[in-house]
Amino acid sequence: MDQLILVAVDLVAISLLTFGVYFPRHHRRDLLTAFLGVNVGVLAVAMTLSSASVGIGLGMGLFGVLSIIRLRSYEIAQHEIAYYFSALAIGLLAGLPARLSVLTVALVGLIVLTMYVGDHPRLFGRHRQRSLKLDSAYTDEDALRAHLEVLLGGRVVNLAVRSVDLVNDTTQVEVRYVVTQDARPTAQGAESRQAQETVSAARPGVRA
């Protein structure tokens, strides 16, 4: 009976995590299948191993190998990796114990709550990250920073120059910035963001 309740707790938790938190915010249908499959698969195998003579360490080692293969086979974002391992952890927490406990339910709820808060759009909502290829070769970081702040309509807090091509007159840069409340992005900045998001043709000043 306790294991049936744990299965129900797991299904409720993974449903909240995927359909209530992840999908409304990121809208990637393919990862819903991955999260649900990983969670239910880990739950089923963990419950089987917990009552079998096979060492639980062997089972967890196999899942570790499978997780590495899955994450290396296709590039996913860092927040999606967090959801991936949250789904795995929920399955383990519900599948390993033989009896229902308040601690198990609390830990499962803590994972869901952590992902809800940690991935909330209002948490550092003004912080942005962009990868840009500029139509100018910048060797002066201060000049590059000033240009990016005008271009993006915000305050640059971190930038990393990936490459400077003096022959083709281009600069590849990773930039993190904070959108200022009173900022009014210029037409050039708006066009650059649209070009980057739609992967359209390059324009003067920036390429996506």
How many distinct beta strands? 3
Element-by-element helix/strand order: HHHHHEHEEH
Distance between the termini: 56 Å
Biggest sheet details: 3 strands, antiparallel
If strands are numbered along the chain, what order do they take across the biggest sheet? 1-3-2
- Percent of sequence in beta strands: 5-15%
Helical fraction: 55-70%
Average pLDDT, rounded to a whole number, is: 77
Give the overall shape, derived from the CA principal axes: elongated
Q: Looking at the chains present, what oligomeric state does this protein adopt?
A: single chain
**Structural class from helices and strands?**
alpha+beta
Please tell me how large the radius of gyration is.
23 Å
Q: How many helices does DSSP assign?
A: 7
Unreliable residue stretches: 183-208
Verbal overview:
The structure is a single chain. The chain has helices at residues 2-26, 29-50, 56-73, 78-95, 102-118, 141-152, 187-198, and strands spanning 127-134, 154-165, 170-179. Helix 1 (2-26) runs antiparallel to helix 2 and helix 1 (2-26) runs antiparallel to helix 4. By secondary structure, the protein is an alpha+beta fold. The radius of gyration is 23 Å and the shape is elongated. 60% of the residues lie in helices and 14% in strands. Mean pLDDT is 77; it is low at 183-208. Strand 2 and strand 3 (170-179) form a beta hairpin.
